[in-house]
Amino acid sequence: MPDRRMLAFLGAAGVFALDRLTKWIVETRFTFFDTKPVIPGFFDIVRSQNRGVAFGILNDSASPWSTVFLIAAALAAVAAIATMLWRADRKMDARSVWGLALILGGAAGNVFDRIVWGRVTDFLLLYVRDWQWPTFNLADSAIVAGSALLIFDLLRSSRRSASHVS
C-alpha cells in the first residue's frame, strides 16, 4: 500500500486533472456571453478570464512584468507546498496532509494556465440579487478547502496544546 504522501500527491494530481477538465469544458463550450443558471438566483456557470490574482487584483495591469511576477510567485508557492508535503511525517495530521494536497493541486492548476495562456479561466459565479462573488474555478475551490483544513487543524492543535498546559 502506498504511503499517505503518495496518496496525497495522487490527490493533488487528481485536483489538477479535474481543474483542467472543467476549464477545458468551459473554454470549448461557452462564449464570454453565455450564462448557464445552475441554481437560479444563486449560482451560474459563466466564462471569464483573470490575468491577475484572487478577486481580479492586477487583472487590469498593463505591465508585462505582472504576469512574470505572478508566475514566479506561484511556482515558488507550488514548490514550497510540494516540499512540505514530501517532508510530511507520520506526526502530521491527515487533515493537514490533505489540506496541502488540495492547495498543491489547485495552485498547480492555476499556475499551469498562467504559464501556458497568461491568464486563468474562471467560471463559477455565486450571487444574491445585486451582490456577487468574483468568478472562480475548481482550483480556487480546492485552495480554499485545503486552507480551511489547515486552519481547522491548526485551531484544533492549539486547543489541545492549551488544554494540556492548564
Summary, kept brief:
The chain has 166 residues and is an alpha+beta fold. The protein is 60% helix and 14% strand.
Distance between the termini: 40 Å
Major sheet details: 4 strands, antiparallel
The secondary-structure class comes to alpha+beta
Main sheet strand line-up: 1-2-3-4
Regions with pLDDT < 50 over 5+ consecutive residues? none
Oligomer: single chain
What percent of residues adopt helix (DSSP H or I)?
55-70%
Any idea how many domains?
A: 1
Number of helices: 4
What Rg is obtained from the alpha carbons, in whole angstroms? 18 Å
Shape: globular
What is the percentage of strand-forming residues? 5-15%
Order of helices and strands: HEEHHEEH
Mean pLDDT: 88
Number of strands: 4
Q: What features would you describe in this structure?
A:
With 166 residues, the chain is α+β, with helices and mostly antiparallel strands. It has one domain (4-32, 44-54, 62-141, 148-158). It contains four helices and four strands, in the order αββααββα. It has a four-stranded antiparallel β-sheet with strand order 1-2-3-4. A hairpin with a 2-residue loop joins strand 3 (120-128) and strand 4 (131-132). Helix 1 packs parallel to helix 3 (94-117) and helix 2 packs antiparallel against helix 3 (94-117). The protein is globular and about 50 Å long. The N and C termini lie far apart (40 Å). The model has no long low-confidence stretch (mean pLDDT 88).
Keywords:
166 residues, alpha+beta, four-stranded antiparallel β-sheet, 4 helices, 14% strand, globular
